[in-house]
């Protein structure tokens, strides 16, 4: 009897493995999932997706900007050490927090929402769902709640026991990046020009601080002149928000037409010289044929943009995840266990 049970178990395991392999055909280091798959919590915490969404619905209803903030948090996490929730760690005995890095300080937000999701998950499924997976799910759900595409999030990431302040200062692309800088930064993470243009479309929601676009208004090329690619009326409006000195934290929508709705307006605005950041406008003006073509394609075909955004988010979420026995499942996302 025991031998029959063993044989049946082996057959079931083989069946599950084969079917998962068909659904997620990429192994470690491939262009896919590195051992991650959407059903990871199917038995250990089947309510995980529902819990994340329930907290986000409330948080975004109270503060619609939070959707963009949580999307950005996932991006800033994945570009430093991989998608390992290192960005969530506070300063500690062995941790220099990434929150204090130039691209993050007084800028990234949403930590309290992640804390709330984690606390709710810990009550229902203790020590099961990683903070890194929470970030990935929160980015997807924030997109959906803003009117954007849905995708199945591959899961199974574990949380890092380290952070890197230095990498946060050097590996997150700056808002005044040239097109070649952007392409290089993304290539280092295994992302191509299609991923660059599609993921930049995340700027269809959210805001940016004056300090990130002041250079375009007053001294784009070190000659005390504005960026000539800025549309005139848009330029004048930005000057009223962002003076030459002071007002660093004054904000302007990245997509002035529909700042709370996830759509393809971002690309249409770029075509009219109304991309807010240098890193937005250079997708068109940087004279790289592929990125120019993609901006134009996404501007006329929202479904195409949505499809590629989902694909690129899955790809970005697969940057060097910790899996198996690597890392840990943090009880509190702000500190190691």
Automatic annotation (TrEMBL):
UniProt-annotated binding residues for Ca(2+) 2: 204, 255, 263
Q: What class of enzyme is it?
A: oxidoreductase
What family is it from? Belongs to the peroxidase family. Ascorbate peroxidase subfamily.
The record's section on PANTHER family has: PEROXIDASE 72-RELATED, PEROXIDASE 9
Q: So where does heme b get bound?
A: 203
Binding, Ca(2+) 1:
77, 80, 82, 84, 86, 98
State any single GO MF term: lactoperoxidase activity
Q: Which SUPFAM superfamilies match?
A: Heme-dependent peroxidases (SSF48113)
Residue positions binding substrate:
173
Q: Which residues form the signal peptide?
A: 1-23
Catalysed reaction equations from the record: 2 a phenolic donor + H2O2 = 2 a phenolic radical donor + 2 H2O
The free-text note explaining how the cofactor binds reads: Binds 2 calcium ions per subunit. Binds 1 heme b (iron(II)-protoporphyrin IX) group per subunit.
Instruction: Name its GO BP terms in alphabetical order.
Output: hydrogen peroxide catabolic process; response to oxidative stress
Please give the organism. Cinchona calisaya
Highest taxon above the source species: Eukaryota
Q: Which PROSITE patterns match?
A: PEROXIDASE_1 (PS00435), PEROXIDASE_2 (PS00436), PEROXIDASE_4 (PS50873)
Q: Does the keyword Calcium apply?
A: yes
Q: What does this protein do?
A: Removal of H(2)O(2), oxidation of toxic reductants, biosynthesis and degradation of lignin, suberization, auxin catabolism, response to environmental stresses such as wounding, pathogen attack and oxidative stress.
Q: Where is the Plant heme peroxidase family profile domain?
A: 35-337
Q: Which InterPro entries match?
A: Haem_peroxidase, Haem_peroxidase_sf, Peroxidase_pln, Peroxidases_AS, Peroxidases_heam-ligand_BS, Secretory_peroxidase
What's this protein's name? Peroxidase
Q: Which cysteines form disulfides?
A: 45-125, 78-83, 131-333, 210-242
Q: How is this protein annotated for GO cellular component?
A: extracellular region
Q: Does the keyword Secreted apply?
A: yes
């Amino acid at each position: 009897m025991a031998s029959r049970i063993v044989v049946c178990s082996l057959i079931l395991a083989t069946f599950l493995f084969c079917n998962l392999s068909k659904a997620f055909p990429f192994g470690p280091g491939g262009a896919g999932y590195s051992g991650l798959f959407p059903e990871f919590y199917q038995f250990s915490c089947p309510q995980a997706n529902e819990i994340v969404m329930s907290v986000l619905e409330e948080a975004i209803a109270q503060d619609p900007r939070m959707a963009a903030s949580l999307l950005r948090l996932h991006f800033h996490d994945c570009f430093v050490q991989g998608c390992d929730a290192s960005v969530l760690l506070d300063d500690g005995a062995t941790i220099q927090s990434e929150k204090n890095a130039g691209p993050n300080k007084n800028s990234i937000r949403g930590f309290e929402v992640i804390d709330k999701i984690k606390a709710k998950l810990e009550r229902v499924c203790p020590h099961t769902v990683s903070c890194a997976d929470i970030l990935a799910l929160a980015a997807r759900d924030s997109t959906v709640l803003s009117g954007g595409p849905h995708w199945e999030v591959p899961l199974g990431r574990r949380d890092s026991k380290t952070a890197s302040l230095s990498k946060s200062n050097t590996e997150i692309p700056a808002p005044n990046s040239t097109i070649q800088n952007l392409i290089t930064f993304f290539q280092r993470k295994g992302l191509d020009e299609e991923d660059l243009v599609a993921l930049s479309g995340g700027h269809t929601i959210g805001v940016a601080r004056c300090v990130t676009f002041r250079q375009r208004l007053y001294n784009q090329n070190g000659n005390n002149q504005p960026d000539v690619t800025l549309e005139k009326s848009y330029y004048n409006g930005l000057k009223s928000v962002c003076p030459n000195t002071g007002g660093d934290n004054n904000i302007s929508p990245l997509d002035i037409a529909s700042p709370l709705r996830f759509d393809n307006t971002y690309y249409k605005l770029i075509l009219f010289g109304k991309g807010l950041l240098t890193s937005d406008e250079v997708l068109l003006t940087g004279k790289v044929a592929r990125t120019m073509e993609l901006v134009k394609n996404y501007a006329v075909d929202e479904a195409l943009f949505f499809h590629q955004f989902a694909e690129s988010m899955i790809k970005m979420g697969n940057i060097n995840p910790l899996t198996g026995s690597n890392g840990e499942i943090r009880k509190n996302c702000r500190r190691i266990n």
